Amino acid sequence: MEKEHQQTANCEDGLRARGGDVREVYISVDVEAAGPLPPTYSMLSLGAVAVDDPQATFYVEFKPVNDKSVPAAMKVVGRTLQDFAREGRDPKEAMTAFRDWLSSVAKDGKLVFVGFNAMFDWAFVNFYFHQYLGENPFGIGGIDIKSYYMGLSGGTWEDTRSSRIPKEFKDSSQRHTHNALDDAIEQAQLFRRMRQKSAESR
After folding, report:
1. 5, 130, 176, 178: which is the annotated catalytic residue?
2. Cβ contact 110:102 at 8 Å
3. So where are the chain's domains?
4. pLDDT in tens, 2-23
5. Does the annotation count 178 as an active-site position?
6. What CATH fold (topology level) applies to the domain 2-200?
């Protein structure tokens, strides 16, 4: 872990050496949802971790906003809408907690959303932020790890499937659990190692 922190510091030094004057704070985010798009379906859980500070994590579960769900999506989640209705937090309260955590992690840095197939996760996070708090602290963009890997490897979109990404970017002790925090942590490691590979190839 100490080696990865040093590699990250080297990447950040490289950014500043090329004229970057803003400290970027990369946040790996993963969500589980009742279906493919908001607001038709509910976001059910959200996990996040600071890519360059793996001890800084956030997790929250949401009360569903309606009773709509896709069976395949709920099978992945492994729980029912009723479970989340009983145990989840009010969406506005949950997004407020997420915003406050982001602020505490970013301090004076610029938040950057990072996801694996980020378009899916981004859609829910962006909608919920605007719906309940009126603004998204990530702004209007983010980094998709699949796209980043496609550029790094020179491969095809099909090659960006998780099962096809080389083991050098993965931790063999981690499993893809479909718990939002576990998956956010897994994604963060992928992104750290890909960034280091990119830095070494320059």
Report:
1. 178
2. no
3. 2-200
4. 444 454 454 454 444 344 678 9
5. yes
6. Nucleotidyltransferase; domain 5 (3.30.420)
